[in-house]
Structures are given as C-alpha cells and as structure tokens.
Amino acid sequence: MNTVESARLFPNLEAWDPAPLRKALRKGGFHKEALETLGLPEHWLRSEVPRAALLSHAPAGSAVDSLIRLFTLGDAIDGEDALHALGESIHGLLDLGFLTAGEGRVRSLYQILPVAHGWVACDLLRRQGEDADDYVMGVGPSSVLLRSLTPPVDGRVLELACGIGWLSGQLVRAGLPVVATDLNGRALELGRFSARLAGVEGIDFRQGDGFSTVAGESFDLIVANPPYVQSPGGNMVFKESPEGDPICARLLRELPAYLAPGGIAVVLLNWCHRTDDDWPDTPLSWVDPVGTRRWIFQSDCSSPADYAWKWISSDQRFRNEHAAADEIRRWLAHYRAHDVRRVSGGFMVIQKCEPGGEWTRTESRAAEGIHARAGDELLRIVGNETWLAGGHDLLETRFHVPDGAKAEVVMALEDGWARRTIRLTSPSRLSYDGQVDENILRLLELCRAGRAPAEMVREIRAKPEFSAMTDLPDRIRNLVRELVSHGMLVPAGTVRD
Ligand SMILES: C[S@@+](CC[C@H](N)C(=O)[O-])C[C@H]1O[C@@H](n2cnc3c(N)ncnc32)[C@H](O)[C@@H]1O
Q1: What pLDDT, on the 0 to 100 scale, is given for residue 328?
Q2: pLDDT for res 45
C-alpha cells in the first residue's frame, strides 16, 4: 500500500460545520439509543445483518429509514427523502464530498455508524467486497476489546494502527494528549471527520508505517490493535500484513524503545505455534525480556483450518464458493510450509522497568466475559505482580479487596440441596473468573475486614482437628499469593506499618 500521505478525502474538512449533521442525525432518530428502542442493536449496524432485517425495524418512509439506507446500506436514495432526513446538513456533506448527487438521487460514499455518545465514519461494508486494499473498518469487536483493556494511565498516549481513532477520541476526551498513527491515509481522514463530528479536538493524527512517525518520542501508554490476522500475506491493510511482513513481531520488537520509564503498552495479537503447550513462546520471544515486564494473555486457540475458515468465511471477497476454496487452500499450504499446527489470539501487556525489576506472566482464559472497563484490573495486576516480586511477608500484610468481587454458588439437588461449585469473579472479570472453595472466600472476608492473613492461620489452628497442621502457614501463603496475583487482594501495607 502506498504510504505517502494520500490526497485528502475531505480537503475542506476544517471549514465544515458538523452541528447541522449532528442535529439531523439526532432528530431523525439515527443514534444508538433511539435505534436500540426500535430493536436495532448498535452492533447490527456494523456487521453483515441482511438489509431486510435492518429495514424491517424502521417505519417505511421515515427519516430513520432514509438514514439507514444512506449511511448503513449505502443506497442511492431519492433526493427529497435525503433532504427531509438531513435538512440543511445535506449541503455541507455534498460540498465536502461525503455525499454525491445525480439524477435526483443522493448517495453516501461512507458509512456513518452510531456509537455510544455519538457517531463515527468509516467505509461502507460492501467496499471490502470490492477488494479495496485501503478499506477502513469502523468499530469492531477487537476495537471494543482494546477499549476495555485500556488502563487509566496519565501522560502521553500513542495509539498505533489507530484506524479512525475511535479509542483516541475517548482518550482525548479523558484529558490525555494523544498521538494516533496509521499507515492508511483514508483511515486518518475518516478519523478526522469522526473527531469533528464528535466535537473532539486535539488528536495528533500522523500517517506512516509502524513507529516511523514517532521516532525519538516516548509515551506513558501505547495501545494497538494492529492487522494481526495470520494469513499467508494479503493486501487488506486493515487486517493482514503483506507477505513476508510479520507485523506483530516487528511492532513488539520495536515497542519498548517508545515507552517512557514505567510506561505501559497493551497490544492485541494473533500468532502461530506448534503445540497446545508452546503457545507463549513465540510472542514472548518478540519482546526483549531485559527492562520489560511482560504479560501474555491467550484468549483462544484454533486449528489452522478453523482459523483460516473463520476469516475467509467472513470476508466479502470470498463469497463465491470457488474463490473461498482457493483461498483456504492457499492459507493451509502456508501453514504446512511453516509447520504451523495452532493459531492463538489474545493480547500482550508490556511495562518498561529498570533492569532487575522484570517479570513474565502467562495466562490462558476465554476473554468473552471481560467487562467494558477492565483497564483498572489490568493495571492492578501489573502492580500486584511487581509487588509480589518484591518478596514481602504475605501473612503479615494488610490487603484491600476490590469492590464488586462476586461469588456465585451452584447447587445440585440430591438428597437435599448440595453445594457443588463456587465461582469467584473480579469486578471486570479480567483478573479473576474461576472456581474457588470456602477457604478462599473466608480469606477475602478477613482481609476486607482489615485483618492480615496470619489471622486465618490462627483461626484454623484454633480448631482441634487442624491444630497440628504444620504446613498451614505455607498453604495460606500460597492462597494469598494466588489472590494477589489475580488482583483479588491488593496490598495496603504491612501489619507493622
Ligand atoms: C484492525 S485495524 C484497527 C483499527 C483501530 N485501531 C480499531 O481498533 O478499531 C488495524 C489498523 O492497522 C493499520 N495498519 C496496517 N498496517 C500498518 C502499519 N504497517 N503501520 C501502521 N498501521 C498499520 C490499518 O490501516 C488499520 O487501520
């Protein structure tokens, strides 16, 4: 793909007044809340939902019907209907080149996607099927996952491979200075349009490959959802890198040099490996272990055939059965040639530290349950791992228990109701989601009441049947270590403080 700054899609963007469009979209009911009231969830407008299903929810001839046809389906609609739905904003959009008109009909060249608190602009889904290598995606499940994982860090932010900069906009709104970079100039233009529509000012958009536009700079937070699809090489810049460019490896190798001391990065990844057990090796090998704390989280693992089919079957370019069959053969030949037996997905967290302060954490769990604001938990885990590496007296430390921890009990009816399992979850389900026993619940309860884990040792020892249990302190220490490592206990200080 051409990395030279593309001719601007909207040369007059700075002179455009977005207020009339905002007003028309609101008045026409083309916003998240109103559409959900009609039975149209936000994600329907950004996925391949059949047009009949989309339109069946909007009263025929209404403004919202016109706006869905125009901005979701990309139809050429009657000029009178467009004028009715868009009011005076139609003129600005035509001048800008966002809409075109001819023979009494009006068409949008781009999609407008309603999202929480506003809208973003991106390419219409069907452009993907036209094999446009510079296709610009809107907000997808991976964008939402990265948003959830973004830790609340103060300081300079870099969003690498930012696309339309949806996340960057939210970080600027939170008061952070953000540099947003992407290879695709069209994505940045649609990002600038989206920022204007959202009333967000100050995202520093820069076009270029990887870190090329931020040479010599450092950041307190780097977030990235790069084109991580492990294909044999492709031309769709929003999801796959060209043949011979292992982009995830390249970005992770370079990344620590752009982190300020103590700075944190969160990068979504996919990667290839050989067995069910060697999954952490490859991504960990991409990041220099000296001067970094590394946490690799595997959220899924597939066979090459399943992985290839997942991407090919959802790719509009391979709708035709023969095209899909040729493409899957190409992917499988590539995996065979490189002895790839498994393909995993997940994310990597990196924190820059002084040599000597390093640690590595590997974790494998489904990520589906992770809640919208998991960044706090991510930060807590990083802090707790570092604290654990400091060799503290775990029995004599006081801990906080984060608000919102939940335990759910599953019971089975046998002779009577019998307790079967207890599932403990952290507030955002990132740091903990697993089965525990009553001892762990009791330990959390004691710690929350401000008592140190040594109390639990004394409490159990007071029972005659456990009084001679010599390994009890070690057992409790291990439970505490586990709970700290999972962010369920947060060190508050030692008892002697
Ligand atoms: C999966 S999209 C993510 C977009 C956005 N960050 C999000 O989460 O919605 C990947 C982005 O990486 C960009 N990209 C691809 N190759 C790149 C490269 N070599 N350097 C910088 N950005 C690149 C694409 O243009 C695309 O916008």
Answers
A1: 96
A2: 83
Q: Which atom of ligand 1 is nearest to the CA of 245?
A: 19
- Report residue 40 as tokens: 């149209």
The per-residue DSSP string of 345-390 comes to EEEEEEEE--TT---EEEEE---TT--S--HHHHHHHHHHHHHHHT
- Lining ligand 1 with CB less than 6 A are 137, 139-140, 142-143, 146, 161-163, 166, 182-184, 187, 209-210, 225-227, 237-239, 247
Look up the CATH number of the domain holding residue 196.
3.40.50.150
Residue with the smallest CA separation from ligand 1 atom 27 is 163
Which residues of the chain carry a pLDDT beneath 50?
A: 2-4, 497
CA dist 114 → 141, 194, 228 (Å): 15, 11, 26
For ligand 1, the distance from its centroid to the CA atom of residue 153, given in whole angstroms, is: 22
Atom of ligand 1 nearest to the CA of 138: 9
CATH number where 426 lies: 3.30.390
pTM for the model stands at 0.94
Alpha helices in 120-210 (DSSP H): 126-129, 141-149, 166-173, 185-198
Helix (H) or strand (E) holding 271: strand 259-273
Residue 331 Cα to ligand 1 midpoint, Å, equals: 21
352: left (phi over 0), alpha (psi -120 to 50) or beta: beta
Residue 343 and residue 472 in one domain:
no
Q: Report the atom number in ligand 1 closest to the C-alpha of 142.
A: 8
Establish if 446 belongs to a structural domain.
yes
Pick the last residue of a domain from 389, 424, 446: 389
- Which of 183, 206, 213 has the most ligand 1 atoms within 8 A of CB, as the residue to mutate? 183
Token digits of residue 42: 């936000």
**pLDDT score for 495:** 60
| Closest approach atom of ligand 1 to CA 1 | 16
Residue 497's pLDDT is 41
Residue 415 domain boundaries: 394-494
Q: Is residue 5 part of a domain?
A: no
Residue 191 structure tokens: 């990002």
pLDDT at position 3: 47
pLDDT tens digits, one per residue of 374-407: 999 999 999 999 999 998 999 999 999 999 999 9
Closest CA to 108 of 90, 130, 87: 90
